[in-house]
Amino acid sequence: MAERVNHITPQGFRRLREEYEALFAGERPKLLETIAWAASNGDRSENADYQYGRRRLREIDRRINFLARRMKEAKVVDPALQPDKGRVWFGATVTLADEDDNERIVTLVGEDEADAGAGRISWHSPLARAVRGATVGDVRSVRLPGGTKDYEVIAIAYPPGG
User: Fold this and answer.
1) 13 and 72 part of one domain
2) Does 86 reside within a domain?
3) How far, rounded to the nearest angstrom, does the alpha carbon of residue 151 sit from its chain's CA centroid?
4) Which helix (H) or strand (E) holds 6?
5) Which of 81, 96, 112, 147 is most buried by a 10 A CB count?
6) Dist CA 113 CA 39 (whole Å)
7) Does the pLDDT of residue 59 top 80, yes or no?
């Protein structure tokens, strides 16, 4: 099965890179020093600093490997350079209205940047898939766990630039 493309905005890629660098160049070396110090204190089986340090090092290494893999697979897409700003594509901020005229504003971003509470939804989410390619005035149906819901596209915006 083919992996789907890991789209990400330049800002999202920068955040991944910053977290990677903070762990790799900052937290990990300090932790290695603590582990070395704790190991020099003798019996490691009853040394909490040593045991905690090793456990935390494994967690950091897993996160570093995950971030490295995600950055390697990432396809950085700058929404400001979108040629067709009249349609909903990756990086668009979309104002939607449901059947009860409740408005919802969402920005379509990569999986690594999604934060539904902040209005950033994954490009691969059901709502994002439903509104892809839509123009202002289009009504799209979305199958949600609670049933099918219709949304009308009220406005489409992209970051300035391009």
Assistant:
1) yes
2) yes
3) 24
4) strand 6-8
5) 96
6) 39
7) yes
**CB proximity list for 93: less than 8 A, separation 6 or greater:** 105, 106, 107, 156, 157, 158
104 and 43, same structural domain?
A: no
The pLDDT-based confidence of 16 (bands split at 50, 70, 90) is: very high
Strand 147-157 with 93-97, pairing: antiparallel
Quickly count: other Cβ atoms within 10 Å of residue 146's Cβ.
6
CATH of the domain at 43: 1.10.287.180
d(CA 5, CA 26): 30
The pLDDT of residue 1 is above 60: no
Residues 101 and 144 placed together within one structural domain of the fold: yes
